[in-house]
């Protein structure tokens, strides 16, 4: 029974954290227009 209560408390805490972050919103700023390179380009 204690495990069930602990799981419920953890779930509520995680949900509260997600809702708080959602309410605050994304931080201001803009993304870079340049794409990120995932591989090294070939240089002959």
TrEMBL record:
It comes from Streptomyces solicavernae. This is SPW_0924 family protein.
């Amino acid at each position: 029974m204690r495990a069930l209560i602990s799981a419920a408390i953890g779930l509520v805490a995680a949900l509260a954290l997600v809702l708080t972050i959602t309410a605050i919103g994304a931080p201001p700023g803009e993304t870079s227009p340049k794409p990120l390179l995932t591989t090294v380009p070939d240089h002959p």
